[in-house]
């Protein structure tokens, strides 16, 4: 039992924070929102160069063979930066999904195709969108090369040209969403049956986990921005952060955030398990992180006053990311219903000493 | 009979009249957003249409374009207005804020000059309160008005001015006594926006439209006749205006009742997949909208019986802003993955504008005096707690 | 349309407040809690003398023929004082229930018996407990003379000796609760059928309405006590009420309270209607008033700190009354379910202009 | 391996050992409330039973009656303790507050004199912090300790002293320098309650039992050997003690996990008639209890790796106190008309003590430093916001 992250884990997160400060600066995000950005490929390649897409890939596929516990802080950093690249979907969902499918493929042709796709995804040579029934809209990288399309009991790997996807613009210009029109049956590499269903379920767990980690990151960013504004903005002769009302608002955010964090980290250690405990852990992480991000966003704009409504102030990038994450990989209702069923329905063993069971 | 919550035949007749007129006149297609240029023009046209039916501001005296209606009649009008899903009032700074201020503090000439054109929708007003260093702390303003003969010369920088990007006039307070500080030496001015020395720059809001503007006064000149009240009386008048803003009229209960109704529809279309706890939130939104309506009728009755509205305005401000946030927050949760879709997304939930409504609701606890300030007011002036 | 109370209505409430300040003083309440009080009959007679039991009785029965709108402020005062007498159950529920049953009785014997009971209840000569399926425990006056027992489609008037009632002590010593063991079929005066069902339903509406009014009163009392303590108690060199956190807590209570009040008053004007609107109005009143009292109680004890835990400080009488009222005539779940069904289920017409329909 | 959330075989063995012992020793019938005289005696006996199994305070060194266990092992012990529904710890002021303080600030003699008897349940401690004029503002205390030879003479009035009605000793701070003010000139004293010059008067709490007491010091004498630390060091030591109170051990996560489990059972027996939204509240209680447990393991891991617990204690205090209030408030709503029944009522919901739990939970945001003060601490010391 050791709840500390290692030096290596923290260093890797630090490296991403440093890189993201540049790739996802306020200036660059504003350009994306204004439609004047053309650095998509540059950002993708920079992340690939740091090896970030390969964290969860097996060593045989050019990966680092690390675990979800190793990726969780990276996902948090992606949220902190409101990174305009679907790093978590590629590295945290598509790569382990491909690895699992490739490892379990029945025929060698399928296995080879999946292994090739895995290697390309882990290196960043391919850009993969993962469609899943839990998401009415799919987050895709700019100019995707492949789609992984999950259904009840199939997972299909398609080339981008085999897919018809309708753009669904959202408030968050840093995330490109699409509604997928049913892909043609005859195309692609298809895995069927129980193995596909289990892999698809695990993909949804990972998607929700990493959305939660991003929410924690964006909540922290929103809080940092609000705290710094509260220290600077003077009204009635003192910084507004000296007023007890503002202090207590921000302290409440910090409480919510600090108690969401360990929930998300703990969920990372069991995200791949198929049991009720893992489902509860992931839904708990999703709800706690979304609640922290929601409170952080509402508090940040309240602290900013009218200033928070201005396009020129960076705050809105992070608010919009918080809203977007709240709707991805199972929005509030999905996770709330799931956890209510587990806790109130008696499926989960409750009580002291069950936390890590 | 006291505590009589039934409408008189005259009140019922008014309701029928408003309903019929709105049915005939409210545009079938929703207007474009009034935060944009095209939408602003459409809303300006709608004000003229309203005025053509003599519905510009029914509580005003007939001589200023009103109908001399009382507050209960006004509430009935508003209910029918929102029931008909009629457009937002682009004119609200004029009819709800400056109008009542002019009636209380204006000269006969000022009333005759400004009120009828306000009611007719001919002149649209912006407010010019805040400055970069004076938001909640309005007494910190620095913009000046210097008397020169029968004119004032205005200098300074106003910000967060709603409607100003496309409006005709603005009202605000300026420092006429350069030696003064805080609440003293301020004067209330009425200023044409389209004149030399006034420069308006739209501020893009987070939804992408210029809902605010900055106004730069660079030696703009206004005649002394455009001063409301006396020199140095500006703070007093502005506080009265702010009271109107928080008071009875700015946020019509009908607005929230209409939104709660839409929310219940949204619930019904999502009920099978929704967190059952959201049903309680939907019911709460309905209850709060009704409570706000009931309290408004109660306040209207008290005012009509000779009472006044003072610190109760702060209670109202907190209640409606929190209700609006709760209501739209519930909609966001019901919408799930659809919540953040923009209006042009193919799968956006139509006709509701939930995202825009949510963004707007986030501002509720901020404008018209932050809720933190309102809570101080309630604690100190209603409950009698000691000052900090 | 006039939402103002009349001078007479306010004067009557003022008279009760004055009387209750004596009958229900901190000293007397403490004696009741300590089991050293013997003034039950004196309190009852004082309320009877003011004519309070007869407000809703018809003139022909020695009553004032007033309406629920006239009684509502009296119920609020009963809550404000944490009155240790079930005034609302006798005057606000039993009396109108007897009046309705007497007026609609089919045979003259029943009518006469009910009319007699009505007259006795309105004058205070009898002390009536109303048992209703919505209440698992029945609030009874000290030494009751009669029980009115409502069931699905019967209402039965019994003498106290015909009833077996088991005491169920609660935290609020000012309210005597009993579980009623099934009364013997052969006793009493019985009204059956649709008229009885309608009368019983109306009794439940009135019970809930007056519990809500009492909750508003007790919420106000709790707030008054907390405000006055916050002005007096000095910590860190100033009265605690000068701190913004305390101010904002109390301001939030006041907001909840002020917006519960008109809901309760409006419900009084339609409590006797059988339609969906009246049901929604009463459940809304019950929920809003209970929420205000709950927040007022929690805030009051938070403002008092450890002092609020002391038996010697009056605060707990009012907290306990707030808890007791929250469980009477339909607790939270009953009213929450009813209003959710009405609002979300589509039975109620929503939207602007429906408030008084 | 970092972020390794599995238990070692040794840890699993400890769990099995605790579980077996508790199964054998926890009284079948719940003890009477420790706020009353009889219950206090029963709980005192239970402490002795615990000590007989060497379970008094397992994190302490063996020489003081402990097992030298680490914090993770302590958490496992606590989980099994609450899983077994074992009695409340009447000894908690000693083992959780004074014990750690003594280890940090006590002399070797003091540790040897006091710690083993604490762990053995032989001496029960009360705290004596607050005074009538010094609640949250502890620096305002007036009780004095005047040095006379090798003794101190104590005078003054302490209040809200938990356990004091029946305890053996108390600890608290007294003013040794009469000219001093606020945080200076205070000294930490260990005082036998049963001696001349000490008068204890129980304060009846709102549930009717004397959970608090007042202590009147009327020239009570204690030897200089009972002074903890130096003269004038009292504030510093008291703040460390208060840190322990808010810190890791006072409110065991297992306590809330057990309560959340009972709440889920309560839900199941009421589900058909309950507001469906309460299911969300039940789930929230479970989630919050788990989050608190996870955060406690995280903090324990950090401390075991050489970290410290500072302002995080304030985050903990707010979280568990609000969770406890929410959890018990949900139970009250589920119980409806049964919520306010007293323990002796025939129809009370057995074995739960929900009303007592609710009343106790209301105190959570107050004691060990009000949540308002904790929020100030978080804002100023963790977030770096400016002081008022």
Task: Describe the protein in words.
Chain A is about 55% helix and about 10% strand. Chain A is an alpha+beta fold and about 350 residues long. Chain A has a domain at about 195-345: Butyryl-CoA Dehydrogenase, subunit A, domain 3. A four-stranded mixed sheet of chain A has the order 1-3-4-7. A three-stranded antiparallel sheet of chain A has the order 2-6-5, with no helix packed on it. The model of chain A has no long low-confidence stretch (mean pLDDT about 95). Chain B has three domains: about 10-90, no CATH class; about 125-230, Beta Barrel (Butyryl-CoA Dehydrogenase, subunit A, domain 2); about 245-380, Butyryl-CoA Dehydrogenase, subunit A, domain 3 (Up-down Bundle). Helix content of chain B is about 45%, strand content about 15%. Chain B has eleven helices and eight strands. Chain B has a four-stranded mixed sheet. Chain B has a four-stranded antiparallel sheet with strand order 2-3-7-6, with no helix packed on it. In chain B, helix 7 (about 255-270) runs parallel beside helix 9 (about 310-335). The model of chain B has no long low-confidence stretch (mean pLDDT about 90). The interface between A and D is large, with 54 and 64 residues.
β-strand amount of chain A: 5-15%
Tell me roughly what share of residues is in helical segments of chain A.
55-70%
Compute the separation of the termini of chain A in Å.
Answer: 13 Å
CATH H-level homologous superfamily name of the largest domain in chain B: Butyryl-CoA Dehydrogenase, subunit A, domain 3
Structural class of chain A: alpha+beta
Average pLDDT value of chain A? 95
Q: How confident is the prediction overall: mean pLDDT of chain B?
A: 92
CATH topology of the largest domain in chain B, anyone? Butyryl-CoA Dehydrogenase, subunit A, domain 3
Q: Which chains make the largest contact?
A: A-D, 54 and 64 residues
Order of helices and strands of chain A: HHHHHHEEEEEEEHEEHHHH
Helices of chain B, by number, come to 11
**What is the CATH topology classification name of the domain at 196-344 in chain A?**
Butyryl-CoA Dehydrogenase, subunit A, domain 3
Strand content of chain B is 5-15%
Spatial extent as radius of gyration of chain B: 21 Å
CATH top level class name of the largest domain in chain B = Mainly Alpha
């Amino acid at each position: 039992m050791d709840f500390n992250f290692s030096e290596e884990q923290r260093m890797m997160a630090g490296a991403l924070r440093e890189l993201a400060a540049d790739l996802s600066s306020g200036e660059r995000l504003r350009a994306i929102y204004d439609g004047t950005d053309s650095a998509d490929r540059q950002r993708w390649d920079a992340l690939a160069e740091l090896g970030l897409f390969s964290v969860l890939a097996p060593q045989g596929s050019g990966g680092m063979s690390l675990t979800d516990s190793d990726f969780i802080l990276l996902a948090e950093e992606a949220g902190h930066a409101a990174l305009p690249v679907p790093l978590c979907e590629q590295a945290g969902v598509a790569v382990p999904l491909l690895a699992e499918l490739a490892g379990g493929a029945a025929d060698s042709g399928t296995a080879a195709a999946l292994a090739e796709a895995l290697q390309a995804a882990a290196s960043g040579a391919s850009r993969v969108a993962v469609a899943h029934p839990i998401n009415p809209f799919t987050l895709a990288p700019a100019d995707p090369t492949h789609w992984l399309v999950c259904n009840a009991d199939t997972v299909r790997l398609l080339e981008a040209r085999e897919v018809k996807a309708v753009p669904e613009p959202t408030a968050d210009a840093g995330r490109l969403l699409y509604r997928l029109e049913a892909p043609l049956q005859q195309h692609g590499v298809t895995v069927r049956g129980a193995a596909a269903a289990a892999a698809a379920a695990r993909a949804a767990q990972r998607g929700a986990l990493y959305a939660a980690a991003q929410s924690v990151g964006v909540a922290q960013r929103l809080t940092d921005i609000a705290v710094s504004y509260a220290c600077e903005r003077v009204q009635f002769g003192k910084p507004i952060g000296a007023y007890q009302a503002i202090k207590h608002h921000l302290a409440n955010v910090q409480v919510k955030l600090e108690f969401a964090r360990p929930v998300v980290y703990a969920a990372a250690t069991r995200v791949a398990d198929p049991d009720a405990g893992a489902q509860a852990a992931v839904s708990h992480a999703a709800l706690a992180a979304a609640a922290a991000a929601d409170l952080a966003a509402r508090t940040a704009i309240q602290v900013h006053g009218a200033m928070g409504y201005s396009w020129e102030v960076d705050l809105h990038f992070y608010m919009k990311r918080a809203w977007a994450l709240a709707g991805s990989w199972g929005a509030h209702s999905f996770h709330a219903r799931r956890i209510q069923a587990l806790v109130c329905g008696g499926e989960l063993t409750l009580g002291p000493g069950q936390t890590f069971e | 009979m006291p505590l009589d919550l039934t409408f008189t035949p005259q009140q019922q007749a008014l309701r029928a009249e408003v309903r019929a007129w709105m049915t005939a006149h409210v545009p079938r297609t929703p207007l474009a957003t009034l935060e944009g240029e095209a939408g602003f023009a459409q809303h300006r046209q709608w004000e003229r249409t309203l005025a053509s039916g003599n519905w510009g501001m029914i509580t005003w005296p007939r001589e200023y374009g009103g109908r001399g209606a009382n507050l209960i009649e006004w509430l009935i009008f508003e209910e029918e207005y929102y029931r008909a899903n009629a457009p937002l009032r682009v004119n609200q700074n004029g009819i709800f804020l400056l109008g009542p201020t002019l009636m209380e503090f204006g000269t006969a000439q000022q009333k005759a000059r400004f009120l009828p054109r306000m009611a007719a929708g001919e002149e649209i007003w912006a407010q010019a309160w805040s400055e970069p260093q004076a938001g909640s702390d309005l007494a910190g303003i620095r913009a000046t008005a210097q008397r020169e003969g029968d004119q004032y010369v205005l200098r300074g920088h106003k910000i967060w001015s709603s409607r100003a990007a496309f409006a005709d006039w603005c009202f605000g307070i300026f420092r006429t006594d350069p030696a003064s500080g805080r609440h003293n030496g301020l004067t209330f001015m009425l200023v044409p926006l389209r004149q030399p020395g006034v420069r308006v720059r739209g501020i893009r809001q987070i939804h992408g439209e210029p809902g605010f503007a900055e106004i730069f006064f660079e030696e703009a000149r206004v005649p002394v006749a455009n001063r409301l009240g006396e020199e140095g009386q500006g703070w007093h008048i502005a506080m009265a205006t702010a009271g109107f803003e928080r008071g009875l009229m700015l946020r019509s209960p009908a607005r929230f009742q209409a939104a709660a109704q839409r929310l219940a529809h949204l619930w019904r279309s999502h009920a099978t997949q929704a967190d059952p706890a959201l049903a309680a939130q939907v019911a709460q939104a309905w209850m709060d909208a009704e409570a706000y309506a009931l309290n408004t009728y109660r306040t209207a009755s008290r005012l009509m019986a000779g009472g006044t509205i003072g610190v109760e305005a702060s209670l109202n401000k907190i209640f409606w802003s929190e209700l609006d946030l709760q209501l739209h927050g519930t909609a966001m949760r019901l919408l799930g993955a659809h919540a953040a879709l923009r209006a042009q997304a193919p799968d956006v939930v139509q006709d509701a504008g939930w995202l825009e409504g949510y963004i707007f609701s986030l501002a509720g606890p901020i404008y018209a005096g932050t809720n933190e300030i309102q809570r101080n007011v309630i604690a100190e002036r209603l409950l009698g707690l000691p000052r900090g």
